[in-house]
Amino acid sequence: MAEFVFFLNKAVLSGLIIGSIYALGAIGLTLIFGILRFAHIAHGDVMTVGAFFTLALAGILSAMGFSSPIPLVLITLIPAMALTAAFSIGLDRIFYKPLRDRGSQPIIIVMASIGVMLMLQGVVRIFAGTGTRNMFFDQPKDIYRIPFPGSTRDLVLTEPQLVLIVFTFVAVIALHLFLTRSRLGKAMRAVSDNADLALISGINIDHVVKATWVIGGGLACAAGSLLSMDVFLKPDLSFNLLLPIFAATIVGGIGQPYGAIAGGFLIGFSETLAIFNWSVLLRPFKASLPFDLPSSIALVPTEYKLTVPFVILIIVLVYRPTGIFKGRVL
Amino acid sequence: MSFLSIADLTGGYGQMTILNSVNLSLEKGEIGVIVGPNGAGKSTLLKAMFGLVNVTGGTITIEDEDITRLPPDRFASRRIAFVPQEYNIFPTLTVNENLEMGAYSRSDDFSAIMEHVYDIFPPLRDKRDQVAGELSGGQRQMVAVGRALMIEPRLLLLDEPTAGLSPMFMSEIFDRVIAVNRTGVTIVMVEQNAKQALAIATTGFVLANGANAFTDTGKNLLANPEVAKSFLGG
Amino acid sequence: MTGSVQSAPATGYRRDIVVFAILGVIIAAVYIFQGSVYSTRVFVEAACYAILALGLNIQWGYAGLFNVGIMGFVAAGAAASMIVSFPTNPDFWNSHGPAMLAWFIVKLVLSGALIFFANLSQHIGAGPRLKPLLIAIAIAFAWIMLSSHMDRMAHEIETKAVWMGGLGLPVYLGWLVAAIVAGAIAWFVGKVCLGLRTDYLAIATLGFAQIIKHFLKNADWLTKGTLTVSPLPWPVPRPEDGDFLFARALYLSVVAILIVVIYLALQRAYHAPWGRMMRAIRDNEEAAEAMGKNVNRRRLEIFIFGCMLMGLGGAILIHFASVFDPAGFIDLNHTFLVWVMVILGGSGNNRGAIFGALLVYVIWVMSAPIASWFFDQLRVYGDLWFHWQAPGDLDARALQMRVFVIGLTITLVLRLAPRGALPEEISHKR
Q: How far apart are CA A329 and CA C85, in angstroms?
């Protein structure tokens, strides 16, 4: 039984957690892809910037002598999301919109987003250094141990992980309601469907673009912050996120927010299941196995985790470029 | 001055000039039909009226307001609607949502107009919660026109509304166009099926090589042997 | 098609003269202030970058292909050349390693064939449901077979011989193999992505570069991993008795000859029907397709060719540095710097790419001391005036300034001078 709980902890819960991060990042990416028609390569770095906003605001609160029973970073997450949303709109205004207005090809805007990516990486490291930081600087992380019936081992969940799972759940429902009930949300879907027709229908494209960056930036901040709370805040956070969130976006189908969510969890679970050591699950049956049980049976060694989203991406591009939710092929 | 008046309009895409000094005028409540051979600039003229083509000369006025070179997103609030020939619906939105998007520029309650659209296009009423991309060709065309009607347009521009439809649906669409026109909407329509279209036209405009060739009432154009020979296929 | 191609107007060459004169002045200044030994080293490296820039220029400038995985092709080429030309490791050849490696290659080929045939399975009557299943089984089978074999092989080689060593073959052969390996990888990536819009190519190349680097870093049996391999052989006599200048100048001449050859070949191709067709595809894909051009095939050709140049450039660069360190391949230095060179020099213009490479590399190298000087001043005066205690990792942060500047340069060039210093030379009549 202990082995099964180990499986739940290492594979199922981990997959849920990293899948939530990917899903939150991929939603923004897919909306930007669908509405502005370009691959926003700087998205991973918007996540990093968002995480730093959360930490910086918490640092300011703490410096002002503010203390609270819940960790400060959890309080500053929401204002940091707003800040990142505004920051994303600013990025669009300064770097992408002028190119769009000039009628540049989408690929030129993709290139500009690479420029923005490098600038953000540089700025973050100039101001915050290259070291790792602990987001929970004011108090230790709560760790919840949930006893599992019939097992000596507990299900383990940390405070930020719990917040992440709840947050993702709420965010997905809120996004669904926004996209299907609100006028602006429907307009976003309309622009993603047919931008020319939206324009001649009198839909205010500018509002739609802003809303896209607000959602994309806000969720990117949440994903970056919650991931940093779960582990540590590193300036090269974005580095390992970019490929999985792009894979999740394309697997889910470009322009499809629900696809991005599904894609995020698919990539997350694939990663954790691929690096999971399956020999643990077989250990109880060691005696009855016809062969010697190796100490480690994993599909992919941990250091090659990055290949999992990549391989999935390649398979999707070859066999089903529209993704599982029949998105657009650019 | 006429309700709609286009004077010496010249324009095209990029450096390429397609329209050469085209004139067109229409009174309120009329149906104007633009016909002509392929490449005559019929669709380009319609797009030029909606700010989608680079206009290099001439003017377009509606009820004495100059709308030449107005950006395309400003037409809805002026109650001018355009139905493109293709890609004229939001395929992943429901029928109801498509109509709502048509009314995006309105801030008032538009439920009565929506009912009115469903009255004109009864087949849509049952499918209001269905995704528009899954409808048949004729029904999609209804959604496209219905979307345009949501702003209660003064002027409705239709680009080949019967393109790709079977003859049965074709006459149904023409019937609807007449029905819409009876509610007081001025219509400018580009049509490939010149005979049927001219039959319902108040005024017909025959374009050739980006310029006016003939302008007369629909009936007279149909009766004109020269028009029949050159442009209506005998 | 008549009359659509004009020869470059006379004013175009005036621009070339001005631009290269400025470059000449800068080169002279570097030699005067930095001494000829160091300067020659900088220019060998800059020349290697010029090869990379030419490779990117034909992909982006001729065909509009968005390759952001240059680092991966550089690393793959460098590794291939290192393995071909490095002296042999007798421990490896006395172990079971060679046999296991041979088997690995056999299994690799078999796996490729297996997946290939699974892809063709509809011809032997597999339905739309069976085919994906067959492909999935083939991929899974190949994966398990290869990864388990690689585990055992890596263990055997690493315990008996540390790593497999090189093949001890001539350096020029190594460079050739570098180009071939990079081209083979490009074939695979291109096959997957080139039918789709070039955004996909960007993502795929970005990802592939990471994976190549990751593999080289972790495959200790193949590359010695973090232990690094050195000294790599040179095609010309290595600096002996401290006579660096002569040896480096010789190396520089080899690279310069290569660049001239590549440049002339590219110019010829550019003005040949092949080059016209490439530009036609870039400028109007649909029209080119309608005229019966096999767009994807042409794109694949140019993508492979560009990547071969990148592999070659990477090999030459790493042999000159003489140390193969997989961790030394960095997106910033080996991908984005090359991009800046090409778009600043003028995409679509080969002289522009060479000019951009030389200029940007010199600025790049000289900017490191300038940045640290600037931050030193910041530390001194920050303390003096504001009692600001500089963070301990200030020097590491100062280097990040360059990341920022590269990003800023990309966005500024796109905004202000999208055609670069030497714009594409042929004007198209519409």
A: 44
